[in-house]
Task: structure prediction
Amino acid sequence: MDRSDVTLERMRTFVRVAERGSLSAVARELGVGQSTITRHLRELEEAVGVPLLSRTTRRVTMTDEGSRYYADSVQILRLVEQASDEARGTRGASAGTIRISCTAALGVLHVSRLIFAFQDRYPDIGVDLSLTDERIDLVREGVDIALRLGPLTDSSMKLRALGQSRRLLVAAPAYLAARGRPAVPKDLSGHEGIRMSNIAGSDTLALEGPGGERHAVPFGGRFRVDHGLAAREALVAGRGIAPAHHWLVDDLLAARRLEVILPDYAPPPVPLSMLIVPERAGIARVRLLVDFLAERIGGIPGIEKSR
Result:
């Protein structure tokens, strides 16, 4: 083989295997047999003339030559896609697939509807929505955009601050009728708390008072959960009190299935951010979705947009 056999298809296969570290995972992702992935890699290495990957029974890693070739390949594939967008003009922006990851409960209750509206405007753009509260490696998982609640530490991604998510203390009327309504923050220590097991420090509840004063209240309870929708169900079932994002319970508050308690004291708001893989940020359809979400995100209850 010669260099003319370095096809974009083989290059894309190599890039995804390098990012995921698994031939079988990439085969499932691309919907082909593992033998096809193996063949693409063999043909690419033969064309390039050096080994790009080192394979063991558990993991596939890049050689030194492979690392350099990967960096160049990512740039080449990005430029090819951008060139295709520009060649097609306006229509080029409205075709292809975008992969987005989102905090699970927010995605189910609100972001999915925003994506429906986006696809109504751009019917030829496919969206692959992944819902998880885990801090995944966006490049490894092939994600273009991620919406995340809370502080972020991944400085390798482009970050766009979307706003602050306001939180409330809430409980079901039946729970309050049975256990009484807290009048001041220290009363919470005698109540059942619904806590998030995937959030550090959930055994202490931080509150801000009407004058800006801060309170730290012991917060216990028999039920802990790692998913916002399950916490929502526990609240409705009268299992206790919880600090909840406004967007998680706004419909339940309107229907009076939940009530706000200690309205003068609120948990601190949580930042909502969008992470964008730098190599994907220049793709026209990705830019469209980034701008669309940034524009519409303020319509979600309790989200105060960044200025």
